[in-house]
Write a structure and sequence with these properties.
- This protein is 96% helix and 0% strand.
- The protein is rod-shaped.
- Helix 1 runs antiparallel to helix 2.
- The longest helix has 87 residues.
- The chain is an all-alpha fold and 153 residues long.
- This is Outer dense fiber protein 2.
- Keywords: Cell projection, Cilium, Coiled coil, Cytoplasm, Cytoskeleton, Developmental protein, Differentiation, Flagellum, Microtubule, Spermatogenesis.
- It comes from Loxia curvirostra (Red crossbill).
- Belongs to the ODF2 family.
């Protein structure tokens, strides 16, 4: 009877351990499910950021092309006006003065456009760098989670 009692106690203790282990397994499975969902959400955000980066790159290319066209158009207009002024220089000294003033205004406009373009370009670069930094952070976090999962199992 004493042996039976001892064995019964051992069986009960093993059953408690089994229940505890089962509960831990359920908790681990829940943690894993939450982490997998978190990884999935991170992947979705990463894909969204990638699309956003692509869109920003396209916008940047379009802005560069537009700025080049505007600069070229302004340059062509300035050259055209300068040639017209040179043909009239002997007869119309006042006209030359007005044309030089207009040319200076065009240069200021061009400089202003270039400064705005540089500012916008720098802003886009900063946003791209921030996005890339976020992507790297997400990738590092995903790598951390993977290694954590590997360590857990």
């Amino acid at each position: 009877q004493e042996e039976k009692k001892q064995l019964t106690l051992k069986v009960e203790e093993l059953e408690r351990k089994l229940e505890s282990t089962s509960a831990q397994n359920i908790e681990f499975l829940q943690v894993i499910a939450k982490r997998e969902e978190s990884i999935h959400q991170c992947q979705l955000r990463l894909e969204e950021k990638s699309r956003e980066c692509s869109s920003l790159a396209r916008q940047l290319e379009m802005a560069i092309e537009d700025a080049k066209k505007q600069v070229e158009q302004a340059r062509e207009r300035a050259v055209s006006r300068e040639r017209a002024a040179q043909s009239k220089v002997l007869d119309l000294e006042t006209q030359l003065s007005r044309n030089k003033t207009e040319l200076n205004q065009l240069h200021r406009c061009k400089d202003d456009a270039e400064r705005r373009y540089e500012s916008r370009l720098q802003d886009l670069r900063d946003r791209l760098e921030q996005s890339e930094s976020t992507n790297r952070s997400m990738q590092n976090y995903v790598q951390f989670l993977k290694s954590s999962y590997d360590n857990v199992f």
